[in-house]
Specification:
It contains 8 helices and 12 strands. With 333 residues, it is of the alpha/beta class. The longest helix has 20 residues. It is globular and about 65 Å long. The structure holds zinc ion. The site of zinc ion has 5 residues, from loops.
Length: 333
């Protein structure tokens, strides 16, 4: 992902609902219920940050997971097998992409579904690939070497795998798609065309009778000292979803979620927003650029993006907010 100053024009690919007024008779609009709302629930399942942490570690064990690497192959196997343990079904959305120097990349989005036939559904997503280069590495000779991506890639997936475990034993009555995007971090610095390859493919090939009510993207959600300001494009495209998620955070004292506006970030939520989805990004945006006041935190797109930076407390807060969202959300008939 990258910090961006402005967003490219938005192309809405999904059809608008046409409102056709009838002639003659005047219809009295009744009180309309919102599509969904949050309700009270005193039985929220427990999100286990130890499990999420171990799921980040399991990914890092395979080494860098950049496209066409052995780590990528091994992680693809691992992640689909994990999702198969928990989800009602798992789809692999495979596609190829011509990268730099005519390199043919074999990419796969991994989609774990709960209640696959439910019309009302939401998407929770993260990217599972890691960066093939490290342009922020201190040593110029190592800038072409791939990174481990414990936080940049691993953390969001780790949280979602623990969410999958929870959803296996705690049933909900709407659909949830856990979508692990490939090819998010392939692009060279500032070459946005070659970032977010999996989410672009997913968004334009989305086939379902209804679009998801909303999508929540998790990226860079594992740093010990993370903070989550409200990302700019999320506020622009899905302000109600931002309010809902940050409202939950306030209610449960998840104090890493800050009640302030953050920068505009180009990430997997952008292709979703451009396709008409209401998508938000929970992201520790200060990490981007590897230029924070805290020396330890300047590891973004370097080989220091490893387990040393991952904090269970952060995974816990993010996991608690998502769990609370899932188990208080109710779709109206
Ligand atoms: Zn990245």
């Amino acid at each position: 992902m990258r910090i961006i100053k402005s967003l490219a024009p938005v192309f809405i690919l999904l059809p608008f609902l046409l409102l056709i007024s009838s002639c003659g008779e005047k219809q009295q609009p009744g009180p309309t219920k919102p599509l969904y709302e949050l309700t009270k629930n005193n039985n929220i399942p427990k999100f286990d940050a130890d499990n999420a942490y171990n799921q980040v570690k399991a990914q890092v064990y395979y080494g860098p997971r950049n496209p066409n690497s052995s780590g990528h192959d091994n992680a693809l196997n691992y992640l689909q097998n994990e999702l198969r343990k928990y989800c009602d079904n798992v789809e692999l959305q495979s596609f190829s992409y011509t990268g730099y120097g005519d390199e043919k990349l074999n990419l796969t989005n991994i989609i774990g579904k709960f209640n696959p036939d439910a019309k009302n559904r939401i998407v929770l997503c993260a990217h599972w690939d890691t960066r093939p280069r490290a342009e922020k590495a201190a040593d110029p000779k190592r800038r072409d070497e791939p990174i481990l991506g414990a936080n940049d890639g691993g953390s969001g997936v780790g949280v979602l795998l623990e969410i999958a475990r929870i959803l296996k034993t705690n049933k909900i009555n709407f659909g949830v798609d856990l979508v692990l995007f490939d090819g998010e971090d392939y692009g060279k610095e500032d070459d946005l065309d070659n970032f977010c390859l999996g989410s672009k493919y997913y968004a334009v090939n989305y086939k379902h009778t209804s679009v998801p009510a909303f999508c929540v993207l998790l990226d860079l959600v594992g740093d010990k000292d993370a903070t989550f300001a409200k990302e700019g494009n999320s506020l622009r495209f899905a302000p109600q979803v931002v309010d809902m998620v940050w409202g939950i955070a306030e209610q449960i004292n998840a104090n890493k979620f800050l009640n302030k506006d953050g920068g505009y970030i180009y990430d997997d939520h952008i292709p979703l927003e451009q396709a008409g989805f209401k998508a938000i990004d929970i992201i520790d945006g200060d990490l981007i650029g590897a230029d924070t006041p805290v020396k330890r935190r300047n590891y973004w797109h370097t080989h220091k993006d490893n387990m040393d930076n991952i904090g269970k407390n952060t995974l816990q807060q993010v996991g608690d907010v998502i769990t609370q969202l899932l188990f208080t959300l109710k779709f109206n008939p």
